[in-house]
Amino acid sequence: MLENKTVYLNGDYIALADAKISVLDRGFLFGDGIYEVIPAYKGRLFHLDAHLQRLQDSLTAIRLANPHTFDEWRAIFTPLLDASKDQYIYLQITRGVAPKRDHAFPEHIGPTVFAMCSDIAPFPGKVIGIKAVTIDDKRWQLCNAKAITLLANILHRQDALDQGAAEAILHRGEVVTEGAASNVFIVLNGVLITPPKGPDILPGITRDVILMLAQNNGLACKEDTITLAQLNAAEEIWVTSSTREIVPVIELNQTLVGTGQPGPVWQRMDALFQAYKATL
Ligand code: PDD
């Protein structure tokens, strides 16, 4: 049963049930597109400029022109929002509908643009912590682009769920990259560490906000490589994303992280994050 809500598709606001695209859309045939997830707290879009800059970077990475200006994007999202709720905008742009299936970029077609708004579901793990498992990162070398081509991510997440965990923490060899749908932080010897930006991770907006809050509030932090040995030795592990914010990992590969409770640095950062959200 579909939710009864209005969505945006290629210039029109229509009922979700009426939102249809062609089977020749390159998003459907090839996963040829990118997306964004932008939180909106009580109708206010959170760090919209940063999300739209990352959208631009993703479009540039797949050689697709941005169909709208920043102001036009804001105008497109606004009618979808409900000022009484915490929600997120899901935006997807594909290369569009070509007359036939061909790997090469088609000429003279416009992109398919779809946006909808959903409520941010309460996530108990955010307060009590979650279990995570480490999984070999089998994705490609363009993880910095927010591509809709998410098959590897969903297989990794499902592997974690099948093992009774809520998130997969991915690694390439000895080096930790990120979660299946999140960035990773650890606290090691009192210092907050997250892997540096690069082709192996999505440059998370939540990640940037946490680094900014750490710097502004005198918390020791750095962007640096995290090895599996450091992950295993960490006092605290967090996974972060726009829809779940900052989630403490209390068990890794069936071993307690620290005391097996959300740690004091997480408590501090979560309080800073909630206070910061309220100021915007
Ligand atoms: N995913 N890394 C990956 C692979 C992600 O999919 C996400 C978020 C993040 C965190 O980025 P941000 O803080 O900007 O949300 C990192 C979104 C929420 C999703 O795919 O639904």
UniProtKB/TrEMBL annotation:
Reactions catalysed, as given in the entry = 4-amino-4-deoxychorismate = 4-aminobenzoate + pyruvate + H(+)
Q: Tell me which PANTHER family the record gives.
A: AMINO-ACID AMINOTRANSFERASE (PTHR42743), D-ALANINE AMINOTRANSFERASE (PTHR42743:SF10)
What EC number(s) are associated with this protein in UniProt? 4.1.3.38
Q: What class of enzyme is it?
A: lyase
Query: Which family is annotated?
Result: Belongs to the class-IV pyridoxal-phosphate-dependent aminotransferase family.
**Gene Ontology biological process terms in this record:** amino acid biosynthetic process; folic acid biosynthetic process
Q: What is this protein called?
A: Aminodeoxychorismate lyase
Cross-referenced Pfam families: Aminotran_4 (PF01063)
Give the top-rank taxon of the lineage listed in the UniProt record for this protein.
Bacteria
Per the UniProt record, the source organism is Methylocucumis oryzae
Which pathway does this polypeptide act in? Answer: Cofactor biosynthesis; tetrahydrofolate biosynthesis; 4-aminobenzoate from chorismate: step 2/2
Among PROSITE patterns, the record links this protein to: AA_TRANSFER_CLASS_4
Cellular compartments per GO CC: cytosol
What functional role does this protein have?
A: Involved in the biosynthesis of p-aminobenzoate (PABA), a precursor of tetrahydrofolate. Converts 4-amino-4-deoxychorismate into 4-aminobenzoate (PABA) and pyruvate.
Cofactor(s) demanded: pyridoxal 5'-phosphate
Alphabetically ordered keywords of this record: Folate biosynthesis, Pyridoxal phosphate
Keyword Kinase present in the record's keywords: the answer is no
Q: Which one of the record's GO molecular function terms can you name?
A: 4-amino-4-deoxychorismate lyase activity
